[in-house]
């Protein structure tokens, strides 16, 4: 029998957004962990705002909205606020009713500035990590460190000489610029769009792009991110950031860290041993800083096998998290994106590891 397409407006409805979310949906486990972490940050939020004036968007909803942007590959705050008007799952996650209005995109972006000023993104990352530690999902002994290049929002055409004597500009908003025969380096040139971005390439023969360097420290039990850094892309940034993150580790006994051949240098190996960390670094064929005592242990082979899982983190952040080309300018704003995206990655992993009743 053919159905009738006659539309009749519902005059009274008693359903809520919770009625539309399946009981076994992973987002329910994610929301439970997020709300526990936000409860711990409530004293921090209380100090951020005045008791007088017009109420702003609650910081809890700002952080939850940022997580949804990463989890569902939303390109911008404007697109997120537009989708919030009709997506019931988004409204449920933000504890909004069906008839509640969506946020204004300009207000949403402006209110996130307060999170940046108080370094809330890192504190939120640590709060979610403490939930994983409480559930015994983290390894206290074995870690992996790695870094990657994250392409800056700045165009290569904005990479101009610092003295201002650049090539003549053409006509229009996007003129043709001929760089042939011009020697360009970070010492003599800088981006006019994002001065903190640096020209870097992934390897020989690769195209050089204005980039930042992203670094993560992964625990080897379940592949969760336990620390992260975002720095300028320099030749020593990976090793310097790795030692900085290892120095922040809270531990009671000796640990191990796996890494690729780029970390096989005397200064990094010495820095690890100084911090009571065994460097399970892949050895170079010639002039390796790793001796035979380290390689002969079974744990070294295990670290070398497990360390490749760190690429899954970078792959997720660049594809699902939208980090293939960064959308913000400057180290601070891009670090906030990296911290919230790493938090979203940890939440996805935790939703798979925790039982449905967690």
Describe the structure.
The protein is globular, with a radius of gyration of 24 Å. Helix 1 (26-40) crosses helix 7 (120-134) and helix 4 crosses helix 6. Helices cover 40% and strands 13% of the residues. It is an alpha/beta fold and 358 residues long. The mean pLDDT is 90. The protein is built from 13 helices and eight strands. The chain starts with 25 loop residues before the first helix and ends in a 5-residue tail after the last helix.
Task: Briefly say what this structure is.
The protein is an alpha/beta fold and 358 residues long.
Total beta-strand segments: 8
Content-based structural category: alpha/beta
**Main sheet overview:** 6 strands, mixed
Looking at CATH, the homologous superfamily of the largest domain is Ribonuclease H-like superfamily/Ribonuclease H
| CATH architecture call of the largest domain | 2-Layer Sandwich
CATH top level of the largest domain? Alpha Beta
Overall, the morphology is: globular
Per DSSP, what share of the residues sits in E-state strands of 2 or more residues? 5-15%
The average pLDDT score comes to: 90
- Helix content range of the residues, please? 25-40%
Structural domain count: 2
Low-confidence stretches: none
Write down the Rg.
Answer: 24 Å
CATH topology of the largest domain: Nucleotidyltransferase, domain 5
